[in-house]
Amino acid sequence: MSDSIECEAVRRGRTWVVHVPEHDVYGHGRTLKAARENTEEGLALVGVTAPVTITAVTPELEHLRSAEAAYEAALGEAVAALLLRRTTLGDIAQATGVPPSRVKRILARRSAPGEDPSAAEAAPPMPAALTPSG
Prior knowledge:
Strand order of the largest sheet: 3-2-1-4
Strand content: 15-25%
Low-confidence stretches: 117-134
Number of strands: 4
Radius of gyration: 21 Å
Helix content: 40-55%
Order of helices and strands: EEEHEHHHH
Largest sheet: 4 strands, mixed
Protein backbone atom coordinates (compact mmCIF):
# COMPACT_ATOMS: atom_id res chain seq x y z
CA MET A 1 0.00 0.00 0.00
CA SER A 2 1.66 3.21 -1.10
CA ASP A 3 -0.98 5.84 -0.26
CA SER A 4 -0.47 7.95 2.81
CA ILE A 5 -2.84 7.35 5.70
CA GLU A 6 -4.19 10.59 7.12
CA CYS A 7 -5.32 10.68 10.72
CA GLU A 8 -5.77 13.07 13.61
CA ALA A 9 -3.90 13.28 16.89
CA VAL A 10 -5.48 14.59 20.07
CA ARG A 11 -3.65 15.60 23.21
CA ARG A 12 -4.32 13.48 26.31
CA GLY A 13 -2.31 14.82 29.21
CA ARG A 14 1.30 14.88 28.06
CA THR A 15 0.75 12.43 25.21
CA TRP A 16 -0.56 12.63 21.66
CA VAL A 17 -3.04 9.84 20.85
CA VAL A 18 -3.73 8.80 17.26
CA HIS A 19 -6.55 6.56 16.02
CA VAL A 20 -6.70 5.06 12.54
CA PRO A 21 -10.32 3.89 12.41
CA GLU A 22 -10.13 2.18 9.00
CA HIS A 23 -7.56 -0.25 10.46
CA ASP A 24 -8.63 0.00 14.13
CA VAL A 25 -5.09 0.92 15.13
CA TYR A 26 -4.03 3.33 17.85
CA GLY A 27 -0.69 5.04 18.33
CA HIS A 28 0.71 7.40 20.92
CA GLY A 29 3.79 9.41 21.79
CA ARG A 30 4.99 12.40 23.75
CA THR A 31 5.77 14.17 20.48
CA LEU A 32 3.90 14.12 17.17
CA LYS A 33 6.91 12.45 15.55
CA ALA A 34 6.89 9.69 18.17
CA ALA A 35 3.12 9.27 17.79
CA ARG A 36 3.49 8.97 13.99
CA GLU A 37 6.28 6.40 14.31
CA ASN A 38 4.29 4.41 16.89
CA THR A 39 1.21 4.48 14.65
CA GLU A 40 3.26 3.27 11.67
CA GLU A 41 4.58 0.41 13.84
CA GLY A 42 1.03 -0.50 14.86
CA LEU A 43 -0.11 -0.45 11.24
CA ALA A 44 2.81 -2.68 10.26
CA LEU A 45 1.55 -5.26 12.80
CA VAL A 46 -1.70 -5.53 10.83
CA GLY A 47 0.12 -5.62 7.47
CA VAL A 48 -0.24 -1.97 6.44
CA THR A 49 3.01 -0.28 5.39
CA ALA A 50 1.86 3.17 4.32
CA PRO A 51 3.35 6.43 5.57
CA VAL A 52 1.21 8.21 8.15
CA THR A 53 0.30 11.88 8.01
CA ILE A 54 -0.91 13.25 11.33
CA THR A 55 -2.91 16.42 11.88
CA ALA A 56 -2.84 17.69 15.45
CA VAL A 57 -6.32 18.63 16.65
CA THR A 58 -7.07 20.94 19.56
CA PRO A 59 -9.66 23.70 19.87
CA GLU A 60 -6.87 26.28 19.63
CA LEU A 61 -5.42 24.73 16.47
CA GLU A 62 -8.87 24.56 14.88
CA HIS A 63 -9.33 28.25 15.71
CA LEU A 64 -5.93 28.98 14.13
CA ARG A 65 -6.82 27.04 10.95
CA SER A 66 -10.11 28.89 10.69
CA ALA A 67 -8.34 32.26 11.12
CA GLU A 68 -5.81 31.28 8.42
CA ALA A 69 -8.63 30.35 6.02
CA ALA A 70 -10.39 33.67 6.71
CA TYR A 71 -7.11 35.55 6.10
CA GLU A 72 -6.54 33.74 2.80
CA ALA A 73 -10.08 34.55 1.65
CA ALA A 74 -9.72 38.22 2.63
CA LEU A 75 -6.32 38.42 0.94
CA GLY A 76 -7.76 36.99 -2.27
CA GLU A 77 -10.60 39.51 -2.21
CA ALA A 78 -8.20 42.42 -1.57
CA VAL A 79 -5.88 41.35 -4.39
CA ALA A 80 -8.81 41.03 -6.82
CA ALA A 81 -10.27 44.39 -5.79
CA LEU A 82 -6.92 46.15 -6.18
CA LEU A 83 -6.37 44.56 -9.58
CA LEU A 84 -9.78 45.76 -10.75
CA ARG A 85 -8.63 49.27 -9.83
CA ARG A 86 -5.65 48.77 -12.17
CA THR A 87 -3.14 48.59 -9.34
CA THR A 88 0.27 47.22 -10.35
CA LEU A 89 1.36 43.83 -9.04
CA GLY A 90 4.18 45.49 -7.13
CA ASP A 91 1.79 47.89 -5.42
CA ILE A 92 -0.63 45.07 -4.63
CA ALA A 93 2.23 43.13 -3.05
CA GLN A 94 3.37 46.10 -1.02
CA ALA A 95 -0.15 47.07 0.06
CA THR A 96 -1.04 43.54 1.17
CA GLY A 97 2.37 42.72 2.65
CA VAL A 98 2.91 39.58 0.58
CA PRO A 99 5.61 38.83 -2.02
CA PRO A 100 4.78 39.54 -5.69
CA SER A 101 5.11 35.82 -6.47
CA ARG A 102 2.30 35.09 -4.02
CA VAL A 103 0.13 37.81 -5.60
CA LYS A 104 0.68 36.12 -8.98
CA ARG A 105 -0.32 32.71 -7.53
CA ILE A 106 -3.48 34.21 -6.03
CA LEU A 107 -4.40 35.80 -9.35
CA ALA A 108 -3.69 32.58 -11.23
CA ARG A 109 -5.99 30.62 -8.89
CA ARG A 110 -8.77 33.19 -9.23
CA SER A 111 -8.64 33.21 -13.03
CA ALA A 112 -8.12 29.46 -13.49
CA PRO A 113 -10.81 27.67 -15.52
CA GLY A 114 -12.95 25.27 -13.52
CA GLU A 115 -12.51 27.14 -10.25
CA ASP A 116 -14.97 26.62 -7.41
CA PRO A 117 -18.20 28.49 -8.25
CA SER A 118 -18.63 29.67 -4.67
CA ALA A 119 -15.22 31.36 -4.89
CA ALA A 120 -16.31 33.11 -8.06
CA GLU A 121 -19.30 34.56 -6.23
CA ALA A 122 -17.05 35.95 -3.50
CA ALA A 123 -15.08 38.10 -5.93
CA PRO A 124 -15.95 39.46 -9.35
CA PRO A 125 -14.29 37.71 -12.29
CA MET A 126 -11.01 39.19 -13.41
CA PRO A 127 -11.25 40.97 -16.79
CA ALA A 128 -9.03 39.35 -19.41
CA ALA A 129 -7.28 42.66 -20.11
CA LEU A 130 -6.10 42.84 -16.51
CA THR A 131 -4.73 39.33 -16.07
CA PRO A 132 -1.04 39.18 -15.13
CA SER A 133 1.24 38.43 -18.04
CA GLY A 134 3.95 36.74 -16.03
